[in-house]
Amino acid sequence: MKKMDAMYICTTPFQIMSAISLVVDREEKADLYIDPQFEGAAEMAERIRQRKIFDTVKVLDKVKAIRYVRGADSTLQRYRRIFALYHQIDVVAGEILIPDRSYTAMYATHNVFIANLVMVYFSKFEIKTRIYFFDDGEGSYDNRDIFKISRGDQLSKRIILKGKRMYKPRRYYMYSPHLFSNMHPTNVTPVYSLPNFNKHPEVKEHLAAVFEITEEKGIKEPVIILDALKEVVLSPSDDEKIVKLYDRLQEEFGADRVIVKRHPRDKRTYENPIKEYAYKNMPFESICLASDPGKMTLITLLSTSTIMPKLLMDEEPRIVLLYHLFKRLEGDDEDRDRFFEMTKETYRDPSRICIPNTEEELDEVIRTIKAELQQ
């Protein structure tokens, strides 16, 4: 049996970024398990192997349990299949885990499917592996139910475990413990700080190689429009209104100072075409690593990607949020207001986050930005 410090379970590129940061900071001998829910997972796994960050990188693309559950036709069928897997959890764990390994700790972002199965296995056979959860980006902060387990699943586990204790996370690792605690005031699990990327040059070197971050992919324009819109978010009239606002921003600041980072599904056409960021599928956190986010002005309807520079790098771009000026067809402004007000508290200069309530307030914000660009 090979004794390892830790195993990490990741389902997204963002989680992999955080896992790399955490394993380097803690100097752990660890394995990485990737549930390939994103395009290019196998290629990314190979780049990680080349960096020798982890002892072993396993892509869980041949686990029958995953296909079995994700092939369910309904929620009820999905729960029934999960319950069936709990009954043979030792067989399922044998498919997932690298043979002849034991781990001091397991890291996951929350009760994701694969992590949930492994926790049931550890609990049933009382395997002494500590459970830790780590930052999953914006959802870790403004999703009140991120760590919630359904009553049905709780009951299923009680039946399977027959009175044994179900393992729970002993601590959370977050980029901003302060923001997390404010957003989850009833949390009683200890929260530890996850180091930002600027703390370890080695982390940034690994991320640049794994995520193929180059200087060419950085953004030099000072004003960035983060277009995270979906067709169902705005009414047709407000959809036209925001496109006209983008055109106005280009006129106000100058075409050479504005760039649009489009949502991958955005099909709009602009009356005065704005320069578009060429790598539109590249995650914004990767773009920040190739740029100077502290000098950015981020303008968006409601993209929560705007908080990534602060969380990941402790950089404070100006953020202009437009959602009070448009009548959205979905979402709760009260929850969104609370989230960004709490985010302001993490800024050294809270005035760099502004949410104009009127066209007049937006005009004043534009004048301020314009004056700073001319300095």
- Shape annotation: globular
Number of H/I helices: 15
According to DSSP, the number of beta strands is 12
Structural class, please? alpha/beta
- What is the string of SSEs from the N terminus onward? EHEHEHHHEHEHHEHEHEHEHEHEHEH
In terms of quaternary structure, the protein is single chain
Largest sheet: 7 strands, parallel
Tell me the Rg in angstroms: 22 Å
Beta-strand percent range? 5-15%
Q: Trace the largest sheet across and list its strands.
A: 3-2-1-4-5-6-7
The helicity comes to: 40-55%
Poorly predicted runs are none
Q: What is the distance, rounded to the nearest whole angstrom, between the alpha carbons of the first and last residues?
A: 64 Å
Averaged pLDDT: 91
Protein described:
The chain is an alpha/beta fold and 375 residues long. It has 15 helices and twelve strands. It has helices spanning 13-26, 41-51, 64-70, 75-87, 89-96, 113-124, 139-142, 151-161, 177-183, 201-210, 236-253, 284-289, 308-313, 333-346, 359-373; strands at residues 2-10, 30-34, 57-59, 101-108, 130-134, 171-174, 191-193, 223-226, 258-261, 297-300, 318-321, 353-354. The chain has a seven-stranded parallel beta sheet with strand order 3-2-1-4-5-6-7, sandwiched between helices. The protein has a five-stranded parallel beta sheet with strand order 9-8-10-11-12, covered by helices on one side. Helix 2 links the parallel strand 2 (30-34) and strand 3. The termini are far apart.
Per-chain topology:
Layout: E1 2-10, H1 13-26, E2 30-34, H2 41-51, E3 57-59, H3 64-70, H4 75-87, H5 89-96, E4 101-108, H6 113-124, E5 130-134, H7 139-142, H8 151-161, E6 171-174, H9 177-183, E7 191-193, H10 201-210, E8 223-226, H11 236-253, E9 258-261, H12 284-289, E10 297-300, H13 308-313, E11 318-321, H14 333-346, E12 353-354, H15 359-373
Parallel strand pairs: 1-2, 1-4, 2-3, 4-5, 5-6, 6-7, 8-9, 8-10, 10-11, 11-12
